[in-house]
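A reminder from the course coordinator: this example appears on the midterm review sheet, so study it carefully.

Given structure:
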């Protein structure tokens, strides 16, 4: 009986267990749940090691725990340090950066995995280089780039919600809705905790589906573009002032005063065209952020709600369990 049930999906196994006591007992057999674990995890890029290990002795519990774990949105610090993170620019970064990014410039035909920049985030705040792409070396030289945790979850603080590298717009962390891997993204870049699929392979990683956009980080964008690049770690000081290079030397101006003077945060739609050039990640600030390229007005409105749509770790949306596993978790 148990052997026959091992060919069923989880919904059918649970239904069989409701027939009578004998069938219920058979539906609890490790043989069945071991097969179900393999089927559930086959296309998942991340299931915690302790849960995978649990499958050797109690596969039914391992199945349940993996579904529970998939509900959390954020990694622990240890997990963040464990992953080899793959990096690419979003198109909103501008053509200068797209043209030197191997994700965009290399030919990935015939491959489901993109060739990308790869880094490990180290406990000492440095980044370890794991790829051989020379074109990006000037951008990603580990000696001058440092990172730090900027936000954790409420309560035990174990889960990391946001980090920052130097004074670039911060990286918001989330979970992939299908493969259970982790994402880090700002309005200009994307990191994945798993090998990044080639362009067009995973629609959930296309720019149009990613949640964090320029409008969501407009303050950080303006801070960066207007020179708030102080020494990493001086958060309160450097992120609240800008340094303007003049013919008579550097001029330090409080950011709030500059923002007020330039009316950066006015809600007047007539100023959109004037502000467009400031949204692009370009050292010369010459490239424009073409909102139409990423979906026009509808996407801009969606972007305004991007970060607010990211739920706490216990919240579940429909995409997280596209099959019957969500109901199965409730029934188990």
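Designed residues:
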């Amino acid at each position: 009986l148990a052997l026959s049930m091992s060919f069923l999906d989880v919904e059918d196994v649970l239904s069989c267990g409701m027939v009578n006591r004998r069938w219920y007992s058979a539906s609890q057999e490790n043989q069945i749940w071991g097969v179900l674990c393999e089927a559930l995890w086959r296309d998942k890029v991340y299931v915690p090691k302790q849960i995978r290990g649990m499958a050797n002795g109690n596969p039914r519990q391992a199945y349940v725990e993996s579904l529970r774990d998939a509900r959390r949105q954020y990694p622990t610090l240890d997990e963040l340090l464990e992953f080899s993170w793959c990096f690419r620019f979003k198109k909103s970064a501008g053509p200068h950066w797209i043209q030197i990014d191997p994700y965009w410039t290399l030919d990935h035909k015939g491959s489901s995995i993109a060739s990308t920049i790869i880094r490990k985030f180290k406990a000492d705040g440095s980044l370890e280089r794991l790829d051989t792409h020379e074109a990006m070396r000037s951008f990603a030289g580990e000696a001058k780039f440092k990172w730090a945790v900027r936000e954790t979850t409420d309560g035990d603080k174990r889960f990391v919600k946001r980090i920052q590298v130097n004074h670039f717009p911060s990286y918001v962390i989330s979970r992939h809705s299908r493969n259970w891997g982790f994402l880090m993204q700002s309005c200009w870049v994307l990191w994945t905790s798993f090998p990044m699929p080639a362009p067009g392979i995973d629609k959930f990683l296309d720019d149009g589906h990613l949640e964090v956009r320029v409008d969501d980080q407009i303050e950080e964008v303006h801070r960066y573009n207007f020179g708030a690049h102080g020494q990493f770690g001086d958060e309160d000081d450097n992120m609240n002032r800008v340094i303007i290079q003049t013919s008579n030397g550097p001029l330090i101006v409080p950011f709030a005063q500059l923002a007020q003077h330039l009316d950066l945060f006015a809600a007047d739609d007539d100023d959109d065209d004037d502000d467009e050039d400031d949204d692009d990640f370009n050292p010369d600030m010459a490239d424009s952020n073409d909102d139409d390229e990423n979906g026009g007005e509808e996407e801009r409105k969606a972007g305004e709600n991007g970060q607010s749509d990211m739920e706490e770790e216990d919240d579940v949306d429909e995409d997280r369990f596209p099959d019957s596993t969500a109901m199965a978790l409730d029934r188990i």
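The CA atoms of residues 46 and 180 lie 6 Å apart. The beta strands are 85-89, 117-121, 127-129, 147-152, 160-165, 171-175, 182-185, 189-192, 241-246, 249-254.
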